[in-house]
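Progress note, project year one: complex with NAP.
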Amino acid sequence: MTQGSRIAIIGTGNVGAPLGRRLAGLGYRVVFGARDVGAAREKLQGIQAEVALPKDAAVGADMVLLTVPANVALGTARALELAPGTILVDCTNPLRWDGGPVWAPPAEGSMTAALAAALPGVRVVKGFSHFGAEVHDDPVVSGMAADMFVAGDDQDARQAVLDLGTALGYHAQDAGPLRNAALLENLAVLWIQLATTGRGRQFAFKAVGR
Ligand SMILES: NC(=O)c1ccc[n+]([C@@H]2O[C@H](COP(=O)([O-])OP(=O)(O)OC[C@H]3O[C@@H](n4cnc5c(N)ncnc54)[C@H](OP(=O)(O)O)[C@@H]3O)[C@@H](O)[C@H]2O)c1
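Model obtained:
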């Protein structure tokens, strides 16, 4: 994934908008997928990006980032009718609230696994998911690049997402196969638990080493 690559971002909310702004600023060709194109164009003014209906945005994209609520992720992704081989990055977290965040994955074991099962041939990778959306604006926190873990079964697709994370300024790290997407969804639960019980939202995880 090099500068000039076409990246579709489905969803223009807390996660999609800053990712698109940063990627466009780095020279990627960003096209947002929105169900209300007019409203999205207005909201995204100032970002050098196209806006189209979700299915049109995904046509010809080198990578598609899925940044919609988890409860509509499967339906939204299916409706894109992605070509086999497309890299789909699942940025969603399947959660419910019960006095705090609770992981609520589909039967496949994670949202990422459910997407992979629903979209045969599509290379599904979990990424950009386990910290607050604010971090996308500036992935350097207290002088250190925030960790951004990536999981999926296709090694080349995983590497492409790692490269994109690195280009954005993260310390992008390979978290292994698709089954580990469940770990990343739970890392998001931990982040929300901490953020909502006094830690605030301006932090990210960092594995320190010697
Ligand atoms: N917020 C965070 O800090 C954070 C961090 C990590 C991961 N996540 C995950 O990222 C995902 C997005 O979170 P968010 O905070 O960005 O949500 P958000 O601000 O509510 O934005 C969601 C976006 O999805 C669009 N959307 C909703 N339903 C849709 C549908 N049926 N078809 C097409 N587009 C649809 C919305 O479009 P409209 O504008 O038309 O409603 C909106 O642009 C969630 O799965 C969340 O768990 C969030």
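The domain at 6-199 is CATH 3.40.50.720 (Rossmann fold).
The longest strand covers residues 147-152.
No further modelling is planned for this target in the current period.
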